[in-house]
């Protein structure tokens, strides 16, 4: 018998890849989608799954719409990917970030506890919760020290998930995902900002790329690989928390070099350091240890950073050429 899944954040990068994965596995996929005046389903169309999804109007900030979606969808699995997910914007919108990324998790957990306690729940946690790192490689036992309103809000969402698991016996797991990118990534994120600029500079539509701290180090993987780990967590007999990462850290500078050199350009000729792009509290290094995910889930990343960035440049070259 087929399973039903409800995804929040369906129209984002991870939601689109996860929806495709679940549909390919025979799931009936439902999505909680907030009404917007702009087109938010373009990622789903690019993956060819837009028409195969059951949509429910709602917002994580509104408890009644979350309850209504759970009651209508009757999901076997809920994947809570919805969030204000841009770290930079969380400084300008700290209250909204706290409501959606923190309180919104509680709204979903409460709906499950009251109406569908047998439902398995996945919470999208983040490496930004580690912030000012307390260990060279971060794993499930590394203390958290968030350095942004986004990281703080996500930490609330993470711990409330643990609390509901331990207090009410829910099958609730958290994936502590390190940076994961794709051609579907939003333009506000540094990887897409770089690959989009590379495409525009190569085609003569832009001259420079303004960035902040290019010596910051991140553990970057492919979103399409990471959504498989989300699914695997909910197939386990026991819920738990897992770090999902590549175990390799790279500077923004090196990521720029990869992207520009792919189209035979030198990043040093085009990248301009702009102090306006520096965060109030910088996170200098993030490096995940995915050993537990490899051991328990049998999961490991399939895509390296060079292949990932080159695929993003290719996609942006095509997009920019059509403009």
From TrEMBL:
Q: Could you say which enzyme class this protein belongs to?
A: lyase
Molecular function in Gene Ontology:
GDP-mannose 4,6-dehydratase activity; NADP+ binding
NAD(P)-binding domain location: 6-312
- Tell me the GO BP annotations in alphabetical order: 'de novo' GDP-L-fucose biosynthetic process
Q: What is its EC number?
A: 4.2.1.47
**Cofactor(s) recorded in Swiss-Prot or TrEMBL:** NADP(+)
Write the record's keywords in alphabetical order, separated by commas: Lyase, NADP
A Pfam family this chain is assigned to: GDP_Man_Dehyd
**Described purpose of this protein according to its UniProt entry:** Catalyzes the conversion of GDP-D-mannose to GDP-4-dehydro-6-deoxy-D-mannose.
Q: Which NCBIfam families match?
A: gmd
HAMAP family in alphabetical order: GDP_Man_dehydratase (MF_00955)
What the record says about family reads: Belongs to the NAD(P)-dependent epimerase/dehydratase family. GDP-mannose 4,6-dehydratase subfamily.
Name of the protein in question: GDP-mannose 4,6-dehydratase
Which organism is the protein's source?
Pseudomonas segetis
